[in-house]
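Troubleshooting log. The previous structure file for this entry was overwritten by mistake, so regenerating from the original sequence record. Sequence copied from the archived sheet and checked twice against the printout by T.R.
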Amino acid sequence: MNVIVCNIGSTSFKFQLIDMSNEDVLARVHVERVGSENAYARYYRGMDELVKEEESSIPSQREAVQRGLDFLTSEIIDSIDMVDAVGFKAVQAGEKSFTVIIDDEILAAMEEYNDLAPAHNPAYLQAMRMFGELLPDKNLVGVFEPGFHVDRPDYAQVYGAPYEWFEKYGVRKYGYHGASFRFVTGETVRRLDLDPDNHKIVACHLGGSSSVCAYKNGKSIDTSMGFTPQTGLIQSSRTGDIDAYVVPYIMRKTGMDIDSVYRELSKNGGLYGLSGVSGDMRDIIEAIEQGNDRARLARDKYVYDIKAYLGAYIVQMEGLDAVCFTGGTGQHQPDLRKRVLSPLAFMGFKLDEAANNEGMERIDADGSSVAALVLDTNEEIIVARETARLAAENSK
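Regenerated output below.
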């Protein structure tokens, strides 16, 4: 089975064609600045063999999709009929956010929840409809990010808001980064040879978008992101957890309307807002080294938030076997990992300083009671596996 996997942003389009018989990537396409006159596209055979790159006008996601399919049929496969299914690393469809066949009902649900994922849902909707027109006989599968977290206890999914909001409007803690967490937790179990039915892992996906997940005995039991990806840890330009009553307070004090307050939060909040330098941890670390106190405050707040969720999840799971880090910050900031992990010394954790500084896969020292891993995530293969599974079931 050959599966196309799509990962779509508001101005980006990435996809891979994967042969699921051996999980080989046959081709990949990466388009940036979609919607502009100077979009930049790169086309690869396999993962790394660059076939061509070009800068041109790509006014819409529809055009990006068409360019990608044209590349496949001209360079990689004889016919589009050789594609068996298309999977999407989709974000939000409310209570339908599982691994599902894309149909009119799912598209309508995505439209209803556009406000929760305004940078992603509209772009995905456009691409899904395009693929539906071009490949009407193929299974289109949405692998929605919250789907990984659906097995959490009900009390881990609700807020202390009126119950009617939960029932009528879907106000609940959804959680995100599902594909990444599914991959790294599975790899942690496999690489440490943990019992598949008896383990306790905290996974940290740390980057421009960051969240933490408690994974116990093969299931997500809690995660830091909630109704939207804005909650949980402080992030690049996201506030993280914030008292809901801050918003009306600032409205009264400044005279701003609600849209203006949210624009201010998203534009000047998060690590960028605190540091005054950048939302990128690399820039923040550089500023700290130059003596910038606000950058230090932003870094310390980020570490504090991660540790707060880590500690809470150790209690929720009643123990801890391993911590794993992924994402650009999680994989490339050894000092940050050290700051997060060092407090675990009280429960017998030992850090291998050299391995951590070198970015090795295993960074706990001999005799440590808790394992610590640094892993490269692979969200695309998770989407491909889920797509192939559901497409096979749907064809029976």
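The chain has 14 helices and 13 strands. Archived copy saved in two places this time.
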